[in-house]
Amino acid sequence: MNNIYILNELVIILAIIIVIISLFRKIKIPPLVGFLIGGLVIGPYGFGIIKNIEAINVLAEVGVILLLFTIGLEFSLTRLKKIKRIVLLGGGLQVIITIGVTSILALLINVPVNEAVFVGFLISLSSTAIVMKLLSDREETYSPHGKISLGILLFQDLCIIPMMLFIPILSPTQITSLFDVVSRLFLGSVGILALILISTYLMPKIIDYLVLMKSREIFVIGIVFISIGTAILTSYAGLSLALGAFIAGLVLSESEYSHEIVATSLPFRDALSSLFFISIGMLVSTKFIFDNLFLFIAVSILVIVLKYIIISIVVMILSFPVRTAIIVGLSLSQIGEFSFILAINGLENGVIQNNNYQLFLGVTIFTMMLTPIFFDFSKAIVPVLDKMNPWKKLIRVKSTQQEVETISNIPYKNHVIIVGYGLNGRNLATVLKETGINYVIIDSDGELVKEAKKLGENIVFGDATRGEMLNSLGIENARVLVLAISDNDAMRRILKFARKLNKDLYIIARTRSVQELDDLYKLGANEVIPEEFETSIEIFTRVLRQYHIPRNVILTQVELIRRSGYGILRGLKLPDATAEQLEAILSAGTIDNFLVLKDSPANGKTIAELNLRYLSGATIIAVLRDNKPLTNPPSSYKIEAGDILVIIGTHAQIDKAFELLSPPSFEQLENS
């Protein structure tokens, strides 16, 4: 009967998960926030719908294991190398400074040293799940603030390993000497090293065996076995279950099967990790929050302001503009989901008091709830916060002087201004250099600018959203402005300034987002290139070539689609004249060439014997032999191997003709 009771509670929770996901998707807030709120409402401290959460916690623990396993899988060592400066310097400074400042503030209000440091651990971490979801939904993952956020979040996630190792050392219930601390760290390091070696040499063999079995069921069970089994091995070594799963995923991230493993794990992870976040919400005492409402609000504001200031300063130290620093600072100002895992371990080891633990849970949920709001308003309030940043002058004086010195004497007229030195910007600069067209590049990544300068590029560091920067680039005398950046908001601001400063400027904008297309045109862009539509055009262009449609016809089609603002690809009705022109192109006949091989049925036959027009509807209008053309060949003309037949007909007729003229072995090869 007790089992039925547990199932009843599980069914209630699953129903709530479905409702939360449906509701929060509509209001565009990450479901994770909803899970926390849902747990708070149905838990023992809320309406008491769920009273016994022990069984739920067991499933939630499995969810955490799979969550950290897949997060480890999604880490790419290659990806880390590309942004290693942001990860190591940016992430390192942020975590160290946050822990230090938080610990000092906690000590000032008489919090014990060990708990003060532990609180610093908790507050230093931000929410990877929420931030990356919001960046992805807004198609800003590859924007400057997206890349910086990712780099800092990656470092924070990696810090979970040493932080977990420190929890027993910080525990007041365990008497620790210097020898205990060193030995604990040594044993933990040895355990992690052993786990890495096992994961590196044993796990790939297990994965290979699972793949060779060619059974979906075995592969799924094997992945669950690896993730949970590794976690249990780690716990036997005195480390955290979640830590072992994370390391196992990290090691397997470079496996050729990593994408398949992630796809296999996701359904389990999403379902069970939902239980974890709901179970966390159940632990929050609403009575404690309401009894200490002033303290709760004050600490929440303090955490947000503290993290915003530290992170924005760190981003500016990395030589990024103030605007980017503000957006990243607000985006990462919440406390993260990894902090929940640390907090639970800290409570179990007596590192944090229950009252402080309850306060931490409430503040974390509240700051997570505010994150989507900060995302929406961060760019709008950038000008206000920019003026309020008293530290920006101290950090940006040198770089601003370098900006002015670098761009003050640009002699160009009739030149191209390229905003963004990513892949598209680099490729454009290479072509312009080869053709002798003058250009200047501006990018907001100071390190990237330094590297480009070493390669001889005409590039400057600066924030193109500032009107004075565009003026310094000679925008009044420029001919073309190319916006090759991934930040849609920055693109809009640059467009507004650029169009005011030069009404005759030809502006080309690249966007990942289809939704931005019409707005960018309204703001003054002459051409907007949506990447996903251009990819579609490239795909259908290659398909049409396989159907022998002439190149000039394909180019005309492409021009019609682009001229209509990609309307046909956006599901919009084309203007009647354009639609008729496109229909005429598609229904028109075409001409193609066919090389006669020795094994071709046409070899040695006359045109009359071949009877191609009757069998296919296509007509041979010319024959090229020994580089000499013969137009309108007579029906008695004998075809030989090496002849090139010029054939006219509809696309379907030419396909049929090619089928009749091709050697049997070619047909078999195509049909195999």
Mean pLDDT: 78
The overall strand count is 10
Helix content: 55-70%
**Major sheet: order of its strands?**
3-2-1-4-5-6
Poorly predicted runs are: 394-409, 666-672
Q: Count the helices. How many?
A: 33
Q: What percentage of the residues does DSSP assign to strands (E)?
A: 5-15%
How many independent structural domains?
Answer: 4
CATH class category label of the largest domain: Mainly Alpha
Rg, alpha carbons = 32 Å
Largest sheet: 6 strands, parallel
Overall, the morphology is globular
Task: Describe the fold and architecture.
The protein is α/β, with parallel strands linked by helices and 672 residues long. The protein has four domains: 53-385, Na+/H+ antiporter like fold, CATH 1.20.1530; 401-525, NAD(P)-binding Rossmann-like Domain (Rossmann fold), CATH 3.40.50; 532-587, no CATH class; 590-671, 2-Layer Sandwich (Alpha-Beta Plaits). It contains 33 helices and ten strands. The strands form two sheets. It has a six-stranded parallel sheet with strand order 3-2-1-4-5-6, sandwiched between helices. The protein has a four-stranded antiparallel sheet with strand order 7-10-8-9. Strand 2 (439-443), helix 23 and strand 3 form a beta-alpha-beta unit. The longest helix has 25 residues, at 2-26. The model is unreliable at 394-409 and 666-672 (pLDDT under 50).
